[in-house]
Design goal:
Elements lengths: L15 E3 L1 H7 L3 E6 L11 H14 L4 E7 L3 H13 L2 E7 L8 H8 L3 E5 L5 H14 L4 E3 L7 H16 L6 E6 L3 H13 L4 E6 L4 H16 L14 E3 L12 H14 L8 H13 L8 E6 L9 H7 L1
Parallel strand pairs: 2-10, 3-4, 3-6, 4-5, 7-8, 7-10, 8-9
Antiparallel strand pairs: 1-2
Helix pairs in contact: 1-9, 2-3, 2-6, 3-4, 6-7, 6-8, 7-8, 9-10
Length: 322
């Protein structure tokens, strides 16, 4: 296996916990949770694993600034800003949405970490503004490093390839892994790790906002390319990627009764907080699949908790959840 630049600042391994009261409420199967909300960087989350590789790559390239993009309450951007502050980078974030009069939740944290924030009203303009921000920083001699949306690049995907290795070393049996998937980096990493380290269960991504076809094509291509960083290329076929897009039709960040129920069930049955956008939607999908008998009652399902709880404190979501 190739030597891959990596920093070690995530709190690993993250624990795996039983959720017996939720399992009982739903009538089986056995449900476990992998607590990647406890990775330790700025309230934790799945992006921390990716940033261990991405920030190491930025350092190797001599970068002085991290630039990234996302929604106005982006969990990825919050953790990117925190990593920039910790390792001495400047940071610029291009965020889609309107800056609230009273910043809260992730946008408040972005400001506390010292990130320069550029807002874009329409998502279709975001890539252009992101490139302009990058070009301006380059012209100013800041040697910017572009952290991809969601940390989903060949380098970022390695975070979850090695997360799969970590899971296997914890000697916990699970026939299924369920998690939220959007930009595809976590999904591609787990698919790659499944093959590279020999996980024999099934890896199912619940789409937050993308179609099943897009996810299968994008994740398989990303996993195939990322495999070259581990050594010999592994070719993944889109059909090998398990994705479900039944629960994302309301749109990104639009709460439905399913997300509200999922957040409430996890809180009231297990004392565990989900976020309303990602883990809330992924958990809602898992709950519905359990009720439909998709998983066998004697199987074990591992839910990857990818973090995002600060979004609960955004006014848009806090007034809708409770």
């Amino acid at each position: 296996m190739s030597v891959i630049p990596r920093l070690h600042f995530a709190h690993l391994p993250t624990p795996i916990e039983e959720m017996p009261r939720l399992s009982k409420e739903l009538g089986g199967p056995r449900i476990l949770v992998k607590r990647d909300d406890q990775t330790g960087l700025a309230f934790g989350g799945n992006k921390t694993r990716k940033l261990e590789f991405l920030v190491a790559e930025a350092q190797e390239q001599g970068a002085q600034m991290l630039i990234s993009a996302g929604a106005i309450q982006s969990n990825h951007c919050r953790q990117t800003a925190a990593a920039a502050a910790r390792f001495g980078f400047e940071c610029a974030l291009v965020l889609t949405g309107e800056m609230p009069a009273r910043p809260s939740a992730n946008i408040l944290l972005d400001q506390l970490f010292g990130a320069k924030i550029v807002t874009v009203a329409d998502r279709k303009d975001r890539d252009r503004i992101l490139q302009e921000t990058f070009d301006q920083a380059t012209a100013e001699g800041k040697k910017p490093y572009l952290v991809p949306y969601g940390g989903s690049s060949l380098t970022g995907a390695l975070g979850y390839a090695f997360a799969m290795e970590e899971f296997l070393q914890q000697n916990v049996h699970a026939e299924w892994m369920v998690f939220g998937t959007s930009s595809g980096g976590t999904h591609a990493g787990l698919v790659l790790g499944q093959r590279a380290f020999g996980y024999r269960g099934r890896v199912l991504g619940i789409s937050i906002d993308e179609s099943k076809q897009w996810l299968q094509e994008h994740v398989s291509a990303l996993a195939s390319s990322a495999s070259e960083k581990l050594g010999k290329r592994i070719e993944f076929d889109p059909a090998e990627v398990l994705a479900n897009d039944d629960y994302c039709r309301a749109g990104y960040g639009v709460l439905t009764g399913a997300e509200r129920e999922a957040v409430s069930l996890f809180a009231r049955k297990e004392g565990l907080l989900l976020d309303p956008v990602y883990t809330g939607r992924a958990a809602a999908g898992m709950i519905d699949l359990i009720r439909k008998g998709f998983f066998k009652k004697d199987e074990t399902v591992l839910f990857w908790h990818t973090g995002g709880q600060p979004a609960l404190f955004a006014e848009k979501y806090s007034t809708a959840i409770v």
